[in-house]
Prior knowledge:
Blueprint: H1 4-8, H2 24-32, E1 36-40, H3 51-56, H4 60-69, E2 73-87, H5 90-103, E3 110-112, E4 117-122, E5 144-154, E6 161-162, H6 178-188, H7 199-202, H8 212-219, H9 228-241, H10 246-256, H11 265-280, H12 288-297, H13 302-310, H14 325-336, H15 342-348, E7 354-356, E8 360-361, E9 365-370, H16 376-389, E10 398-402, H17 407-420, E11 423-425, H18 437-446, E12 454-458, H19 469-484, E13 488-499, E14 505-507, H20 512-516, E15 519-525, E16 534-543, E17 552-557, H21 562-567, E18 570-572, H22 574-579, H23 585-600, H24 606-617, H25 621-630, E19 641-645, E20 651-655, E21 663-665, E22 671-673
Parallel strand pairs: 9-13, 9-15, 10-11, 10-12, 12-13
Antiparallel strand pairs: 1-2, 2-4, 2-5, 3-4, 3-6, 7-8, 13-14, 15-16, 16-17, 17-18, 19-20, 21-22
Amino acid sequence: MENASTLSGIPPHSQTGPEPPPNLAAAVDLIDRGFQVIPVVPGTKKSAVKWDRWLNGLTREVVHNTWSNRQYDIGVILGPNIYVLDSDSDQAEAAIQRICAEHGIQSNKIVKTKRGYHHYFSLMPGTAFNSRTFSTEHHPSRIDVKTGRSMMVMPPSGGRYLITTGSPTVTELIVVTSDFIEAVRRHNAPETGLKPIPKALAAPNDPRQLSGKECRILIDHLDPDMHHDDWIKVGMALHHNFGSSDEGLEIFDYWSSKGRSYPGRTELEQKWRSFKHLRDLGRPGYTMGTVCRMVEDLGHDWQMVCADAQGAFEVCAPITTAKPLEEQFLNVIERYSVLGRLAEFEARLRPRFYVLPGIALSGQITALYSSTNVGKTLTVLALIQALILKGQIESKNVCYFNADDNLDGTVEKLRIAERCLFHTVLPGERGFETKKLPDFIEELINSGHAPGKILIIDTLKKFTEIMSKDKSSTFMDLLRRFTMAQGTVIILTHTNKDTRADGSPIPGGTSDVPEDSDAVFTMRVDPKSNQTPEKIVIFESRKTRGGEPGPFRYAFLRRGTYEEIVASVREITTVELDDFEPVEPDDDDRLIGIVKDAIRGGFTKKMSLRDEVSRVGGVSKARALKVIELHTGPVPSLHHWNFEVGARGANNYILLDCGSDNYTQLDDGSSVNQEAF
């Protein structure tokens, strides 16, 4: 019989090999069966990662790597199609058995827990149902119902185990009927049970508002370490009751901070703001009626609780006895510490790759400084284009913010963007303005869409005040949060007019941009390329984190259309640089004529052509080869000759402007009709 390792595709360990990591095979088996697996802090019911970020990147490989590297318990997030009945007492389990017998339904996946059983079922598509939990102490016969954004801890974690035969996939779970669901609901809410919540209080557009004192005393009856879904409901209820005001936020923070799972004030404020966003989208919300039901489920009369609040003093701050300084310090540290969240950060990691070869790494901020007309935008677009065309970058992930062009320059760059299908954003078009860039980046971060995105900002001074330390620092803090979310930023900006004593450029603006960037390069024109048809640009590293120190050199044509010049960008190696010799324009024309005569004379292979041009022209072989390569290409207005690959990979050169002689004699004695090219 196949074991879980074999079923999941993981090679079983040999008898003499190392012990497999705990829970690894079970975790992989669950994702193979369609469950949304999530790591859980051992011995708890608390997930080790943030749910949404984990689910966005959930793959079999991620699961395998996570449980291979750490000893986590296993949880599954149920989602809208799984329905679980949870019994924590003999009375509740008897009720489940009775309802199942009455409807002829029996779960094919039952998990034994320390306190009871979990019965797994499947919901019919379109069935809407909310989770519901009860206090076993006050309502021992009631059945907890879990679905949607609920997490269940799975075997073998915490001693749990399956009591049913086999382990069905999600699609093989037994489907429950609407009558079955209604029977569970009637069992949990008999006519003589809970007091009904007054309609005026429970309605979403309820005109009545509970006071801050009433809300504070009500939620004091609830555990701030309750299930995350229920904690969200309390927050949304307070948000609705106080109309998103700071008073509701303070009460939410006061109550939440008493729990071990308190996320910290910053994250809590972000969650508070998201409640308004959900309400604006028309999503169903929760009112204080929901909180009242929670209090009732714990055996309290919510009306009596609120009545008690009328005679109570307003609590402006929790009253506590003085704590030792060391304990106070630890409480503050624990509030903000990320201890125990390693798996979450590991799950965010993506493989690093060069966005600009040797210069800009993914997941980093790279700042490129140069004076005007050096070619920073041209070089960056050329390198990005090359990676897109090679399939190493997805064009849909690239966004070029162009705020440094007139209409002619904009059209030239749009032609490249349209051919490569990457995005361009322009100030004044489709409602975008440079001041909206921070909001754009915030939205990418908060929506979970930052991973893999590449933002090219051209130029920096259009988007922030580079001479303002405060504004530059704030902008760079935002970019750092974007890269922490696995986005990539390439900043194009200018150098000072002055240079260092050695002639090297000085980055412009305050020191915050280079200090807060991961990699910083200055760019300048290599004097070796003066008076040549090609310009060589040097990228000199001022700072790098994990990248190569450089320098890097790229060459491109000085004349031609923008697209042609971009297409001509190529990296110059150290060997090529040593052989680089300036060619005077007049001498260039002379050598072009010699090359044409040599091709017509049958010297069509690259090396034989180089040697003939060197001999006849009286120049070095390196200079002859440079002229040949510089004027090779398919565009007659820009190039003079091209080549085809012949036998054994030989390059056979052919003239583009062949005149009346349409045939070229090849080195091997054959001929080629040049009109075919």
